[in-house]
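## tool: complex_structure
## caller: assistant
## args:
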Amino acid sequence: MIPSRVNGEACDRLMTLFCWGCALTLTLVLAAILGFLFFKGWHVLGPKLIFGEVRPLDALLFKKRVFSGLFPAALGTFCLICLAVGTALPLGLACGIYMAEYASNRVKSFFSLMVDILAAIPSIVVGLFGFSITVFLHHYFGGRILPCLGISGIALAFLVLPYIVKTTRIALEQIPLEIRMTGLSLGASPLQNLRHVLIPASLSDIMAGIVLAIGRCAEDTAVIMLTGVVATAGVPKSLFSPFEALPFFIYYTASEYSDPAELEAAYGAALILLAICTGLFIISFQIKRRYNSFN
Amino acid sequence: MNDAPKIKIRGLNFWYAKRQILEDIRLDIRYRSITSITGPSGQGKSSFLTVFNRLWENIDGARATGRVCMDFGNGFEDINHPDCRLPLLRRRVGMVFQMPNPLPMSIRKNMAFPLTLMGEKNGKTVAAKAETALRQALLWDEIKDRLNEDARALSGGQQQRLCIARSLVLEPQVLLLDEPTSSLDEAAVHEMEKLLLRLKKDRTIILVSHYMDQVRRIADRHLVLRDKKLVSP
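## result:
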């Protein structure tokens, strides 16, 4: 019997080594991507990349329009993320809570299937859907509605809705029965139990879904390309105006650049996009920490 | 008056899906007493406890029929009657679970939690009630300087007493305990038994236990759950 035990141990070691190697590869790939971006983009980073020839304060106060900087694109992406996640969040949370807490098994499996199908729809198809809506609205309102920030935001919200629904549902369903019963046995109504016990207990998992949604909104190009992004729109003036966005800037610069300096600006844009996402992640984790604080 | 039954159960049946756990139970439980329930595992002792606060309604597949009447001072009311308000019932009938289940918040917030649910907003009242309950649960002196710490950082015995205190803060007239000492060490068990004997002086306690010696030490009446029936040993 001893040889097989030794074999077992060797297998165990090999498996551990393999898993460790996979984790290391993942980290290295991440480091390589980030390193590459920094290497290519760091020396263009600076106020000039963002604000061009305009003084930063003038740009931030919208006194002067920025033509050669990334400020309009960065602001457009920021507005887009806030709008899309802001629309998807209440819908997704409510839907996830309904499925986890209130729906019967049959209703739940039906809605799960629907959410999974929605998650599987390619972003370009969601973009086409947004485009059709734009065309419809354009005809309905006598040509006053054009591709714009609002429609892009709503179309993107549909794209990220499944992430939020699913993480909310799974997070709530994972709560152990003892925790679930604690509030109820102390006289909490189902709604109070949800508000005071279940949601706080599952908040960190729900937040993971939100972070995923933020990332998805920040990177998506297909949807916004068909619904409202324009290369030289300037800062978005309202929900009904076209806008610029960083991923779209990176996409068209990378495909149509005429000199290396332009390409460098695209790398700089990629770094700014990362910075915006990091900022939003930090904000969501701060919200989570505040909500979870003990005192 | 002390011997008057506080709880009357008539024709109680309990099922999990199609499996019947309890059959035609008839039982009177006196005021100011400890009634203990023992029996083989998996026979439905814990399920039986949920009959007293209708917590079974929140468990998938559970179903109960029959009458469970309790006297909270205005004569017997059937708690399974549609007019019975569930949150009110669960404030009058406190429950402590087998595993200590402090909520992931500070000790202070854990104690305030049941009162918050009731809509009590006055901070002074909340603090005073919490202190009284913690003193009743013999925990105050150990934790009075640590109220803002995470409740999960307490020892197992302290956590379980915190959970008892958290039920006591609502001044329940009936206290249900589901093997409250099974996760505690010997010293903590001893403390807990002392506590239960004190608590029964002004409320009715129903205790599910695994330990016969514990039952002999503290129970006024001992019942065994076997073959869907409650019998005296």
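## assistant note: The CA atoms of residues 9 and 68 of chain B lie 5 Å apart. The interface with chain A takes residues 53, 55, 58-59, 86-88, 90-91, 94-95, 97, 99, 101, 103-106, 108-109, 113-114, 116-118, 148-150, 166-167, 170 of chain B (CB under 8 Å). Handing back to user.
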